[in-house]
Amino acid sequence: MVTERVGEGVAFMPFHFGGHYQGEDLRSKYPKGADPYVLGESSNTAQTYGYDSVTQMQETKATLCKISAA
After folding, report:
1. CB 40 within 8 Å of CB 14
2. What does the alpha-carbon distance between residue 67 and residue 41 come to, in Å, rounded to a whole number?
3. Cβ proximity of 10 and 2 under 8 Å
4. 49 contacts: CB under 8 Å, gap ≥ 6
5. For residues 34 and 13, what is the distance between their CA atoms, to the nearest angstrom?
6. Cα(68)–Cα(70) distance, rounded to whole angstroms?
7. What is the pLDDT of residues 24-41, one digit of tens each?
8. pLDDT single digits (tens) 42-55
């Protein structure tokens, strides 16, 4: 998606999707009527294994990527 909301030179990928985890459909685990409206894989499963050396928290909001013209 091309938008002015993301700065030039920045790649953005939505990360608050639910309903799938590592290719598995998890909708059967949601209470009746509580399925996510938009299904998708969390981008956290595709991110780097990096972590903050001070807090030991995983780094799930930044990673390296390579973008090529289609």
Report:
1. yes
2. 20
3. no
4. 58
5. 24
6. 6
7. 998 899 899 888 888 888
8. 777 777 778 888 98
Query: Which of 25-63 are b and which e, b meaning 16 or more Cβ less than 10 Å from the residue's Cβ?
Result: eeeeeeeeeeeeeeeebbbeeebeeeeeeeeeeeebeee
DSSP 17-66: -EEEETTEE-GGGSPTT---SSEEE-GGGGS---B-TTT--B--S-----
Q: How far apart are CA 41 and CA 20, in angstroms?
A: 5
Amino acid letter for position 16: H
